Amino acid sequence: AIHHVAVVVHSIDDALPHYERLLGWRPEATPFVFASQGVRLCFLAGADGAGARIELVEPIDSVSGVARFLASRGEGVHHVCLVSSDLPADLAALAAAEAELIDPEPRPGAHGRVAFIHPRTLNGVLWELVEQREHEDDT
Fold this sequence. Notes:
With 139 residues, this protein is an alpha+beta fold. It contains three helices and nine strands. A hairpin with an 8-residue loop joins β8 and β9 (126-131).
């Protein structure tokens, strides 16, 4: 299942009103800083409160991967995140199938353990896997 689609923006504060007004998507919580990745994040849920989310991603420095992405490509879709029920097993299966893994081992993410698949693997799209936690029953 899709957990979220991440969109890189110059400013969450500037982008958020458009997502609320045009799409009816509302923040699940106050935007927060994920310092280890050099970003500020805001997860949005649809009007029904269920299903996939939109993650607005704003760089907070000029050296993070997201900052480099924004500088070279501008605002837009950054990655698609899929739910994994067994992240180590999924990573092993992907490696065995010769996927190019950015993260061969899970690492901490905003919603639990995550790993990324390099865009060269699947037609230029960066894919993230997030390990579903028991209390996240809406994904």
